[in-house]
Amino acid sequence: MNRLTLGLIIAILGLCGWIWVQSQKMDSLYAKNQTQAQRIQSQSKTITQLKDEVEQNRQLTLELTKQESELREKADEVIKYIPAKAKSSDAYNAVAPDNVIEFLREP
Length: 107
What we know:
By secondary structure, the protein is mainly alpha-helical. Helices cover 88% and strands 0% of the residues. The model has no long low-confidence stretch (mean pLDDT 88).
């Protein structure tokens, strides 16, 4: 074998080795890419679920606020119709027993 042939064989073997190393790097990067894609998909699903929960919480808050407002309006209506004489009486200003207060608070 002459030097040219030996040089070509070494060059070819070097290129083959370099191609193999690059192939291994590409496979590794592809695996990382797949892992990240799965993670992104999972996080997107979680974000969607959280957005849905936020919307449900918002709806519940609006509903509770509406109910509270209606109850306040009803209480205000009842208070309007209490005569001034009754409001100034000792019985009106007295503290009611706890069980009566709890009963009145029940829906």
